């Protein structure tokens, strides 16, 4: 009986030992399964994060593309606006030369053409336009009148035009040619000191003279000229005609031409002509 009980106890102990090993194996297997599950969950989380990151990157790329498109659109609008201003200023300056291609029309002989020229200048220039040491549209028109009056014939043409400045205040610089034929009135009103030198006078009267010109038009925000700077290269034109720097210096040394290329610095002997040349009188 004791032997039988002893065998039973041994069998139970052996069974307990086997059960412990099995339990250990099971625990190890559970840990493995848990590890695999953790790894799977980690991979799932990592994959989900990468996927979400890819979505974010794509969204950012689309947003950047939209911003770039908006920027290009705005740049196009700004450029179009600037281009329109540039085009307007250039066309206005070129049209100015067309309107006055042969000087100022006589207010009595061609009233409509005269009024067209006056109307154009009033639209093209600010009413208080600065012109050398003078101001106002009448000062500009008065010089056109004097230039026309003091020459037998006159014509102007554009050689080139360029623009600079800002969109709100463009500046147009026009290079051109002022072609004239002098007459006795020209000599009397511009070069009276050479009247006694008939040989020199005849040399000036015999052929057309071309003066290079450079005119700067400064526009305001209303696209009207607020300042006009005129430069007529009388020396080059006369020197090309006479072919002598000495003769040219004699002509220009006491010429009645101001620093801003204005004429009419001395009153004419004929008071009636002086009155008719006054733009304030003509425009009144």
Automatic annotation (TrEMBL):
Organism domain of life: Eukaryota
Region (Disordered): 20-44
Name recorded for this polypeptide: BZIP domain-containing protein
Compositionally biased tracts (Basic residues): 28-44
Lineage: Eukaryota, Sar, Stramenopiles, Oomycota, Peronosporomycetes
């Amino acid at each position: 009986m004791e032997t039988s009980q002893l065998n039973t106890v041994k069998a139970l102990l052996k069974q307990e030992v086997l059960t412990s090993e099995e339990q250990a194996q099971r625990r190890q297997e559970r840990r493995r399964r848990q590890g695999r599950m953790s790894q799977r969950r980690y991979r799932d989380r990592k994959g989900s994060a990468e996927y979400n990151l890819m979505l974010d990157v794509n969204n950012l790329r689309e947003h950047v593309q939209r911003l770039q498109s908006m920027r290009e659109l705005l740049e196009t609008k700004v450029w179009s606006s600037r281009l329109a201003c540039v085009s307007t200023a250039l066309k206005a300056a070129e049209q100015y030369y067309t309107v006055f291609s042969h000087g100022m029309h006589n207010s009595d002989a061609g009233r409509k053409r005269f009024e067209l020229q006056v109307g154009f200048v009033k639209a093209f220039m600010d009413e208080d336009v600065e012109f050398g040491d003078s101001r106002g549209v009448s000062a500009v028109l008065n010089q056109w009148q004097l230039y026309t009056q003091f020459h037998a014939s006159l014509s102007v043409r554009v050689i080139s035009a360029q623009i600079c400045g800002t969109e709100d205040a463009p500046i147009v610089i026009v290079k051109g040619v002022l072609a004239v034929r002098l007459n006795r009135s020209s000599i009397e009103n511009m070069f009276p000191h050479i009247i006694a030198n008939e040989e020199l006078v005849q040399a000036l009267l015999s052929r057309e003279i071309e003066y290079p010109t450079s005119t700067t038009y400064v526009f305001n925000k209303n696209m009207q000229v607020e300042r006009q700077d005129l430069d007529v290269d009388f020396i080059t034109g006369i020197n090309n005609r006479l072919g002598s720097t000495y003769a040219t210096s004699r002509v220009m040394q006491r010429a009645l031409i101001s620093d801003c290329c204005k004429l009419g610095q001395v009153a004419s002997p004929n008071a009636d002509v002086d009155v008719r040349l006054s733009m304030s009188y003509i425009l009144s």
